[in-house]
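re: ur question from earlier - yeah i can do the single chain one, its not a big deal. heres the input i used so u can compare w yours
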Amino acid sequence: MDEQPDRINAAALLLARGAAPRPALLCGQRSVSYSELRRTVARAASAWRVRGVEPGEVVMLRGDHGMDHAIAFLGAMWAGAVPVPLRAPLPHEDEAEAAPVQFALDGARAHAGLVSGHGATRWTAWEPELGDVAPSPELPCEPWAPACWTEPRTWNGGRVRVLPHRFALSLSARPGVLALTPARTMLGMLRALRRGTTVILQADPPRVPS
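and the output i got, formated as tokens:
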């Protein structure tokens, strides 16, 4: 029986199988190969660390399930943080010019100051331009340490799961049967990436006031 490694990183494992030139993510007119995705995710991890994100910290990350949302999510895992995928706000919930992807750090940190005096979470725009950011190596974590949360599967937010880093080892790494795999959730994307297939991100359409 093969021995399990003492420390792993789920994001690195998930991106390890795909052939370098193969498209990893497709979303609308945008495409990124596996080699490009690995570099971009490593840069996103550096961006999270610049923002003060600490290993094991919960990061609420809301967006449209598009390319930038996915990269920010994987980058947080690469940095050892624990991203929570959330849907983008409705127009009446936020200002009209809100960024497509926003985050809020763990409000339990006393020095974070991310909860206003009125009790509302203060969201910060995620900056998707990462070309000038130096990539950082993945952070090895305990296999049972939390890696990420999944989206709720019921209308009232139920059936949410917290996945440890070792979940990436439990996902099948056999080549995908389908050359293109559609994914509407982060978990669906992670499963497809582990197989080294090309993931078609089905981003939510822009939300407009009714």
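Confidence is low (pLDDT under 50) at residues 109-118. not sure if urs matches, ping me
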